[in-house]
User: Fold these one by one.
Assistant:
Number 1:
Amino acid sequence: MTQPQPPNPSWIHVALQDFELPLLRQAMRLLGDAEAARDVVQETFLRLCRADRAQVEGHLGAWLGTVCRNLALDQLRKEMRMHSLNAAGALDAAVGPQPPPDPARQAEDRGVADDLATALAQLTANQREVMRLRFQGGLSYQEIGQATGLSVSNVGVQLHTALLRLRSRMQDPRSTDAMDVANTSDAAERSR
């Protein structure tokens, strides 16, 4: 096995000149925060410094774009978790002490959550990502398209199909008929 090539400062400098602004725009579109976008781009170039040049040369722009996008999405996930925790804490403080939860209701809620997790797992990777960016990240179709490389119309198709599949599954978790219709729709979309 060959040792990774040490980073060449001039190669890194050229990459920084060529890709820093496009990566900043990409991260800014995803995060909506200039400071967070700069942090993501900085981490992207730090990872480039640690990467094996031979592995990324020839597709440097795509590699940097993918790393930047993944870091930005990780940041969005982290912020969504923190926002959820903060909102839950504020709600608990505002509402005050609650009576003990009803065990039957808890079991029903767990069943719904399990059904939803199963239904989400049956979506394609593109459908899950589009759903996450739309509903967790709050991104527009155009922003999702820019982040994923999908066309705006394909984003719409992916989102629509995913929602149909989830709705069908949640109405009757044992049903596969509507899932078959969605699978047929997916096959038709891939054949275009």
Number 2:
Amino acid sequence: MYDWLVEIHTASPHLIKALLTGLLVTTVCSVIGCFIVLKRTSFLADALAHSMLAGVVVGYLVMKLTFGQEAHAPAMLIGSIISGIITVAMIGFVSRMSRVKEDAVIGIMYTGIFAFGGVLVSLFSQYVHIDLLHFIVGQLLGVSDADLWMMAIVSVVVLSFIVLMFRSLQLITFDRVMAASLGMNVLVLDYMLTTCTAMVVVTGVQVVGVIQVVGLLIAPAATAYLLCDRLKNLLWVSALFGWTGFLIGYYLSETLNVAPGAMIVVTLTAQFLLVFLVAPRYGLLADFQRRMRAVPQQFVEDILGVILRADQERCGIEDLIRHTDYKAERIRKAVHSMVKQEWLVYVGDVISFTEEGRKHARRLLRAHRLWETYLQHLGVADEELHQRAHVLEHLHDEQAVDYLDDKLGHPLTDPHGAEIPEDFEHLVPGEVMTLAILRDGHRGEIVKVGSLIVESISPGDRVAVGVREDDSQTWVVTVTNAAGKESKYRFNHQEADAISIRLD
């Protein structure tokens, strides 16, 4: 093995060093990139990469002017880290203290600090001898031993930090509020993660340059994100994509005789696009297949409505075709989909409800008739009520429908005289509800009486709801007190809402 490595090194002296450099950098960039992708701070990583120029130049000048030596890797690393932290601090401060959005502040700050680095290079050109071309496009084949050692140290420090602080990083990535409530110093953890990102960016610039280092950080993590749902898996899959992207990109650069940094980023991008196309859950093809198999919700609800209105809630495919505008093939597809969801039963040529399917259809019918009533209150012409309500009935979120029902005074019938289904979601025996949603025949026990009620009723009394009066605007109830005395009362909507009943 040793002889083989010596032979490779002799034949191509730069190869072993380039491979070690690339594998170290892609590993640490891919891992830290997972947190950047999950926190949606990719643009901030780009800002750190560009602001690094100012830190490198300042580190170079300090070494040259203070110690009379050419800057070396540690000085540039420290300068880059300080520059990155200052950039993040300025972005956070300006974002909090001004009305300008964070993305705009990032764009202003990172370009300004990057330009400041360029100004320093021009002003102190007699002292600063930085190869800006390699700084921009990378110099993988020209990495020195000092740079390689620096990359190894950075990799160990960053990976150790992630391993030791994994739980805390996981928590601030997904739920910062909970992390703060548990006593974690979220701001300190953010700055530690920013410091690690700045260190990683410095190492990445050596491989692909300052322009493309964001691709080295983001592309492997984003590719793994299309395949993984757990953070632990995301980290090692991202590192795996970083290695394959580097090795394939490096091989192609040697074969085609092109810049290795650019080819590595191109390969990483190609990997992402390929996975984006074929990922089994979140890929483009999988999404297309889901769309092809999916049945639109409005389509499903129209079919449920037809069955609910059918004789004995039973009908055939031909009845659905006749009462809807959909083709037979789409109707069959929708019916089979609802059979799988256990909403419908399809025996022979007869389609009928399961209990869950009937409940969903009644919810839809209730929404439709409430919308018709609401539209009539708005002054919509009677001949237009059904068609407009047919569109709005698909907005049948339980809270929205309950709000509509309450605003209308819990009507019993729609404008055509058809009964509006009762609020079966809340009418559950043993549950507490307002008297207002109860109907003729319901019974229960009073558990709370609001301040609006002046009649002598109290918690513990029994209630039997009768038929409403005054065009359903007056609730008529018979109350039996603890002594067995019965009394009849009439309440308006506001008073009925002030009485809470536990339903029998």
Number 3:
Amino acid sequence: MRIKHSALKIILAAFIIGCFLPSCGKTDKPKIAIQQSIKKFGTATVLSGLVVGKEAPMKTGTIKVTGIDGKLLASTDLEDSNHYRLEIAANTELPIILRYYPKPDSLEADQLVAVVIEPSITQYDISPLTTAIAEAAKALGGYTRANMVMAAENRVNVPDANKTSTGFRGDPTKQYGGWH
């Protein structure tokens, strides 16, 4: 019996070492590229929305639409209104960037940005929040849907008291809109 017990211990030790030894010294994990289909506007599409600054609506300035490569696709000026409306040509590949310039010689820090990643959505407001989301998505690796969602989730300010139902007194089925 004693021999079988020792042999079993040796086999078990070899198995454990065999499981962990191949990973020793390796720092590079295989990178798996997520394939993302190229989205584009199937037809000429009108984009519209509002331009809102930190404290007030922006009623003058220019909005330029560029492709990811920086190529100018469309442009419009705001004149006594913070509403904009732009037509984007059919077959325009997404993402595209809506960039608001308060003045023609505006510094990058003064610009507001919104990124279009979905061809089915045509209403895009441009604000400091959309600018922060775009910057965060770019820092995460680019304007992909996953990065935009992650960046947006990190920018939403939800009070800690509303994140869980811990300590909630009352009917929990009514707290989140009646999910029963």
